[in-house]
Every structure is written in structure tokens, then in C-alpha cells.
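Write out this protein's structure.
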Amino acid sequence: MSENQNLLAEQRRALILDDVRKRGGVRVNELTRKLSVSDMTVRRDLDALARQGVIEKVHGGAVPVVEASTHEPGFEAKSTLELSAKEAIARAAATMAVPGSAIALSGGTTTFALARHLLDVPGLTVVTNSVRVADVFHGAQRPTAAGGARAGAATVVLTGGVRTPSDSLVGPVADRAIGSLHFDVLFLGVHGISVEAGLSTPNLAEAETNRRFVRAARRVVVVADHTKWGTVGLSSFAALDEVDAFVTDAGLPDTARQEIEEHLPGLVVAGGQPDE
């Protein structure tokens, strides 16, 4: 293929990251041949991946960043990553919310993006353990300059609990609240998803709270960008066969799509071609 014609930036970077993780490292000259792009393009891609914290640049190439399975980035750190992907995922997932239904949103930056796209869906009852998600809906319910609240403003239930670095409420209080409820659909953000580990998180208390969410939902929809595929946290809380749909972005490599489709009944790739 000619320089960058058939592969856009996020696609290239997803392929590079997949190579780094599978092989334990890559060299720049190998990538230029494999992707049919210039040395400068590859180095820009490696710079971008290094800024995201998913690889470490070394002389002549890159190696994976080995994070502890207990490492849990804060909300602000995660909110700057994969913005276009999260918006595409949020738009696609929002179409799955039926007016008048009871839904649940877990914590996370992708569910935070989704919340903004749900504001105009009428009659929703929203249960969340995310302080940030609750703020989106509460803000929409405040009186407008015209003298009324936003037409699609939902009824929101925020669980109690202990706050995590990602601004989720977890622990026994949250678990009891969620365990007594039933949802039509759960929109679930994840730290990691893989065939072997299923859905996982570095936070033990959050894993138990997420288990309660999954058990209480008639339909489970995972919303996660392509970088979450192949990531494994300390604690698994659900197997892939407990997931009804996985909404992700176009940065997901074809090999990963095939693997996911073998294990999940519904794969939605949002956004078409990624942005350059």
C-alpha cells in the first residue's frame, strides 16, 4: 500500500500496539516494512502510543509497558485518552437505550461520554455508581433560562459507597443498593477485556460491585475502546458469555474482531474509519 493511504493513524497504532503486546517488542524498520509507511510516520505513532502510556520507546523500537494488575489510573488521567473513539462508542451505544426503560451505567470515562448522549432519551430511570455520570444528569435537570428543565431529563439514582480513583462508588453500600434492583440494560465500562480473563478491574471492591450490576441486568452492553482489549486487571468479575453486546471503535484490529465474534453474540464497531 502507498504511504498512509489504506491505514489511518488510529488503525496503524492499534496494529503496532497489538504487535508490541504479542511479540514483546517491535523495531522501527520492521514496522516501516509491514505498514508501508515512512520511518517518520512510525516514530510519530510510537510517540503517540508512548504518551498514552501503553508502550515504552527504546532505541530503535518499542516494548510494552508492564503495569501492575492493581494499577488504577484516575478519572482525569483516563479522560484525555481515545476521545474520538469514546464519542463514537457513546453515540452508538445511546441508540440501545429505549425511552421509558430502566438502565444502569457503571463508572468510567466512556460511560461518562455515553451519559451526555442519553440526555434526550425521554423517561429513563438511571442507576449509577458514578459521581461523574450522576452530575451529567443532575446538571440537565436544573432549570433552564426558559424556565423549565431539559425535556429528556432522567430520574437518577446514585448509589452510596466508597469512592475509587475513577470516581466510582463501590463497597457494601453500593452492592446492597444494586442487588435490590433490576435493569433493562446495563452499560458497563471496563478496565480490561479478554478471552481468558473476561471482564476485569484492578480494584477488588469495584469487581464485586460490577458483579452485582451484571446480575441485576437483563442485557449487558460493554462500552470500551480498542485499547481495553487484551488488558487484564487483578480481579475478573464476568465471563464473556455474560455479555450481550460489545460496543468498541474502529481502532480494533481485524484479528481481534474475529476473536471477539467467536465468543460474543454482538459486536458493534462504532465510528467507521478512525480520525487521522
